[in-house]
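Re: [help] complex structure
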Amino acid sequence: MSNASPGSLESVVIVGASSSLARAMAACFAAGDHALVLAGRDTAELEVIAQDLRVRYARPCRVLHFDALDYGSHPGFVAECTAALGAPPDGAVVCFGMLPVQEEAQEDFTVAGRCLDTNYTGAMSVLERFAGVFEARGSGFIAAVSSVAGDRGRKSNYHYGAAKAALNAFLGGLQNRLHARGVSVTTVKPGFLDTKMTWGLVLPALLVTDPERAAAIAVRGILKRRSIVYVPGYWRLIMLVIRHIPGVIFKRLSL
Ligand SMILES: NC(=O)c1ccc[n+]([C@@H]2O[C@H](COP(=O)([O-])OP(=O)(O)OC[C@H]3O[C@@H](n4cnc5c(N)ncnc54)[C@H](OP(=O)(O)O)[C@@H]3O)[C@@H](O)[C@H]2O)c1
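Output below.
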């Protein structure tokens, strides 16, 4: 494997890079010859992940601080990515997310608000900044990890689902805007993943995917510039069925 400088490789910024899914996606990008910027709140943890990737894949891997809720810092963050790589990145992938305890979101507006602010507003804010740079350059790829929860509101997680639905609509519009400029936009929609986020939840074991498998599917779809990638692919069918359940039946179900 090469010990190439960032300038000779495609580069990708992964935002929310301490997430279990993002770590595995970073390894897939590194294995596929990408220089990386890993960004998130816990830079000490990210430095450990970056060092592991440098050793395993001999790829340049930088670490930057990023907080999805600090919207004012996002324009400067994109400039920091460019400075770290020596040029604007080729791709940007948003992986951060927040799944509140449903009852807490119902009872406490600040919890419901933080869910929307993180999953939607934070993602929208930082992706708009990358979109402007990629649009001006006329190339690049953008992706965000959404969720099947955004496909239809369910009582078990409808604040989270609503935020992810907003993200889906945003990404659809962004794709519509950027397609003519040669910039792809991919919406990644995982089903249940075995990660920190779902720790302690009772999930149907057969439908739970490990982060490494999920990451391989997601990164393949992003690099193929797919519009929407269900993770794994069978969730496309599951959600097609769920979306088409008539409201009169749906409201009686416990989902
Ligand atoms: N797990 C599932 O079943 C599942 C299903 C569908 C979709 N997803 C989505 O997959 C993505 C990855 O989640 P995961 O399952 O890998 O869970 P995870 O390990 O809990 O990752 C969540 C990540 O979001 C980051 N984050 C939260 N708030 C942030 C903020 N204000 N600023 C910056 N980063 C912030 C966390 O950073 P810290 O380390 O700093 O807390 C963490 O890296 C999320 O978008 C999630 O919604 C997950």
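Strands lie at 10-15, 34-40, 61-65, 91-94, 140-145, 183-190, 192-193, 208-209, 228-231.
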